[in-house]
Design brief:
Radius of gyration: 11 Å
Structural class: mainly beta
Largest sheet: 5 strands, antiparallel
Number of helices: 0
Strand content: 25-35%
Strand order of the largest sheet: 3-2-1-4-5
Shape: globular
Order of helices and strands: EEEEE
Distance between the termini: 5 Å
């Protein structure tokens, strides 16, 4: 998975409960890896229809669009 605009592999998703809380992750070889300091129990469920945001440019969209 990489950004279709800039090729970045760093993304974030917003919390469904608080749009100001975000969870950053990278995606290498199809595996989503969150930062080590994030408790994975707090992370929202992520699938192909989840809205993701690129950490480098203005792109955002469904994860399926960045594969």
């Amino acid at each position: 998975m990489k950004c279709p605009y800039c090729g970045c592999k760093n993304f974030y998703v917003k919390s469904p409960d608080d749009e100001y809380s975000v969870y950053e992750f990278t995606c290498n070889d199809g595996d989503i890896c969150f930062d080590a300091d994030i408790d994975e129990d707090d992370v929202p469920k992520i699938d192909d229809s989840t809205e993701a945001y690129c950490n480098k440019c203005a792109w955002h969209g469904k994860i399926e669009a960045s594969k």
